[in-house]
């Protein structure tokens, strides 16, 4: 987790991932060769198999971008109009602190004060504005431009000895895991690490990467939704019903199905067996919603067997997410165990 704080606090809203890319390039340099940045901005490289020679080619992908906003215009008062980049819930927006543009200008998302707004309804993003302290339209235009990205203003921190908080764990935690995997190599397979771009707005970087690299098999490293908080509407006198979503502290999450793919059954079975044999706790993700880079990778180059190994994180796509240190350790252990054991027979359909 050496790079997680730096990765989390970097700003990399989809389409402008340069700050994150700089960290990644520096972090992976000691462990890889053939480093490239493609025309979209995805970072790819190669880590040769232990002992050299021909080996199974495994793509490991994690996306660098995060959800955020973009400046779309200016009010005469100096307030900024803006739009979302990626999936963000309008209900969390009023009063949030943000950072605007490459200079990271501080701002606040504002709306009508409560004493003048008694309908208690959710205000859509189109009715909200950002205040950066400009005194007029000209003052605002002199500090930011249309198209400038806007990120949550959130700091990384620790909550006791087990929990960590920060923004953009979807998917900076995947980037951090990928860096740590490379640092622990080489493995019996040839690794093709890919730090992709524009996942949050259509899995775009992964599509180009998979078509160019044509690996034998792919593993996507992600941060996924943990929904393990108490239900405020539940009857405290009734027995608790297990939540089907994943939970913090229960190990890595293995995707069975989401909106973008169905994991290759034989590959999923191999990963589950590997985790069990190594004594690594694991969870299943069976909800059909959401999607990851695997949704594009598995369709490229005539079909690439793909699986998703995720870190459970509370409150993703918000200013502050939580993750569990033991989940991180277990997830890293599982990825490395898979890379040390996988063969072509473990994912080819029968």
Structure explained in plain terms:
The chain is an alpha+beta fold and 350 residues long. The protein folds into 2 domains: 233 residues, Aminopeptidase, CATH 3.40.630.10; 85 residues, Beta Barrel (Elongation Factor Tu (Ef-tu), domain 3). It contains 8 helices and 17 strands. It has an 8-stranded mixed β-sheet with strand order 1-2-12-3-13-16-14-15, sandwiched between helices. Strand 1 and strand 2 form a beta hairpin. Helix 6 crosses helix 8. The longest helix is centred in the C-terminal third of the chain and has 17 residues. It is globular and about 65 Å long. It starts with a helix and ends in a 9-residue tail after the last helix. The relative contact order is 0.18.
Helix content estimate: 10-25%
Radius of gyration: 21 Å
* Individual helix count: 8
Largest sheet: 8 strands, mixed
The largest sheet has its strands arranged as 1-2-12-3-13-16-14-15
Tell me the name of the CATH class of the largest domain.
Alpha Beta
Please identify which CATH superfamily of the largest domain we are dealing with: Zn peptidases
List the secondary-structure elements in sequence, H or E: HHEEEEEEEEHEEEHEHEEHEHEEH
**Shape, per Cα inertia axes:** globular
Mean pLDDT: 92
**What share of residues are in beta strands?**
15-25%
In terms of per-residue confidence, which ranges show pLDDT below 50 for 5 or more consecutive residues? none
CATH names the topology of the largest domain as Aminopeptidase
Number of strands: 17
What is the rounded distance between the termini?
Answer: 38 Å
Just name the CATH architecture of the largest domain.
Answer: 3-Layer(aba) Sandwich
As for the number of domains, it is: 2
